[in-house]
Specification:
The complex is a heterodimer of chains A (633) and B (151).
Chain A: H1 7-15, E1 22-27, E2 33-36, H2 38-44, H3 48-51, H4 56-59, H5 62-78, E3 82-90, E4 93-106, E5 109-118, H6 120-143, E6 145-151, E7 156-159, H7 161-166, H8 178-184, H9 187-203, E8 207-214, E9 220-231, E10 237-246, H10 248-268, H11 273-288, E11 292-298, E12 305-311, H12 329-336, E13 340-342, H13 355-359, E14 364-370, E15 378-384, H14 392-464, H15 472-497, H16 501-522, E16 525-530, H17 539-555, E17 561-569, E18 572-579, H18 589-596, H19 598-609, E19 613-618, E20 626-632
Helix pairs in contact in A: 10-11, 10-14, 11-14, 14-15, 14-19, 16-17, 17-19, 18-19
Chain B: E1 23-28, H1 32-44, E2 48-54, H2 57-67, E3 71-75, H3 83-93, E4 100-105, H4 110-119, E5 123-126, H5 131-142
Parallel strand pairs in B: 1-2, 1-3, 3-4, 4-5
Classes of the chains: A alpha+beta (633), B alpha/beta (151).
Chain lengths: 633, 151
Amino acid sequence: MRDPAGGVAGALVQALGPGSGIGVAVHDEDLRVLVISPSLAELSGTRPGEQVGRRLTEVLPGEVGEIAEASLRVVAASGEPLLRLEPAVEAGRERGWLIHVYPIHYGGRDLVAVIALDVTESRRAHERLQLSRERLATAQRMARAGSWSWDVVADRWQWSEELYRIAGLSPAGPPPDLRTLLQTVAEEHRAPFRDVTARALRDGRPYEISFSVVLPDGRRRILRGRGVPVRGDSGAVERIHGFAQDVTELARAESQQRAAAEIGRLALTGVTLEVLLRETVDAVARELALDIVGVAQRLGGDGPLALRALSGGAAYRERLGQELGPESLAAQVLRDGGPLIVPDWEAQRVLPRAPLTRRLGMRSSAAVVIGPREAPIGVLTGHSTAPGRVGEEDAAFMETVANVLASAQARLAAEAEVVAQSEARGRLVALALDAEDRARRSISEALHDGPLQDLLALGHDVARLRPAAGDDERHLARVGDGLARAVSQIREVMLDLHPVQLQVGGLESALRAICAQQAAAGGYTCAVRIEPTAAGRRDELVLSLARELLRNAGKHARAEHVGVTVALEEDTVRLDVVDDGVGLAEDRLPEALGSGHIGLASSRERAEAIGGSFRVGPRGDGQPGTQAVALLP
Amino acid sequence: MTTAPIGHDPPVLNGSGTGALTRRVYIADDHEGYRSGVARLVAEHPALEVVGQGSDGEEALAGIIACQPDVALLDVRMPGINGIEVCRRLQQEGSAPNVRIVLITGTPDPVLSTQAAAAGAVALLGKETPPNTIAAQLLAAAEGRVGWSVE
């Protein structure tokens, strides 16, 4: 036979020098080297010339040579090719060789050929690719996002592993086709899903879509997807790349945030605790998809728990308002401090099972304490008939809601205290004013019954005196005038203090007397109208307010005419004092009430002390002037 | 006590101009000084005589029923029952049908006048009314010569 290493083939073999990455050798029937490229010889650490005519066991040391020669023997004996990867270390660097061993027939001889490929670099590239794939998968897993690619022409799909997981499918199976995919989309989202896909195929524009899928186990997930169509040479869309992200948790968190904020907002609108609790249990049941949600509140701040609000659990509704026993879940949580999460009552042996959960067939429960740990005010509980329906995140949402409730409760308590204090203050003001009224009245009566009568009696005595001397008549007249003046002054003072007419002549008599007095002092005319039914209810206060307002009408408003009306409106006495004076700018009223016009401020105090109101402003009929209205229940 | 005839017909006057009879007056006022002054005035009047005095409403009511005077001068403001109320009760009960009541007050005003008239009094006087005028008013009232034009 011809020298196998001769000719063109021999030149090619010789050209494969060290570092070329390809090694070639041919062995004869005795497995001796017939021909070997320098690159392969270098792998064994010898020169090519030294290996020709020798077996590998003679060239390669120890076990390596044995294994290599055994491979050749297997191929020579079986006539089947063999492929193996040979790790090697060259100059301290790990290298990998892919070695093909196969039988060849050449010139009637059965030879064995070896072709070795240095795959170190391609193996590294492969490893890098693998690593990058793993990183992508990790990122997709973390983002709950999966990518896909649809070869429209061949109708072939490629799905990333995470996309399988998101869709609740096994990555082992093939990706579903479009029809199977549509089956998993929630029914109400199928049409939009189809439309968006069809439009992308038509116009080739990127698109986004949100839709829900129903997993094989019945749970719903909310997905947000994006697709980027790719056009082929013909201009038609041939492929769509896309990704889909599972935003269920995000959407749920957003919805829960909104719900908690809504409860907080409601708490600020001044609704009662009753309404707030009712709205809260409904919101928690809705957000967490629970079957029963309840709020138990401690009675009297630190007493036993009573059920205050309930969502769902119709069979349990008769317990509303009733005390909960120490064996109830709420009582247990209150003792332990919570939060409590029971994924499945039937799979746990730690807690004593609360009677309610057993009776109503509840499988999973969560409960959190409302209010500060050291002084809890209640417990929020939630239950589901399905196991595993409550977890850490649900309990976290319930705690958020519980915090909103606790602050609402604290605010309501503070408001109640303000109301109580304001009522107490009102009572004190009323008491003080009553005391003042009594003092004025008793002084006025003392003036009437004492000095006034004395002076009047004295007047009679003087009137009956007969002048004895020439000057006496003049003196007597002067005394009489002086007495009359004193009587008149005392009457003025009495009207200011308290009109004694009130007791005999009633409101009309007393009010007319005051009006006449103030009208004379203020230089205006005064018309009085009193509904008989309005008298005898708040007479003292009506007189006091009217006196103050009439004095203002003269002093500040410079009125020419004043009208005073006392009427009865649904068991409330209404006093109107209307003048045609210069008026009082409305924006100045608070200031006037606050500082300048002590009288007006005290008038308002007096009206409010009995639960009434008092306001001063422009006239209701639009005419220039001021109108004061006091409502006295 | 005199035995003057009871009735509200004007007394018959004789030609000499002196009263054939004196009019009997009851006086009630819680102010002792004022009351005694008026009592002296009445006592000094030739045609009037004081038949009883009281210092509060209850006393006045009982005294008027007991004395059946021709005219009673009642202070409006008195402890217990006030003058207008005494007047109203006498009117309602009819227990002194012929007595004319004149009210007197330290704080006169038109509303009080209206109420006095409604209660059945024939006049309301201010306490500063000169003594002679008071006496004249009492006599006129006793003789049925004063009255209100109030329905």
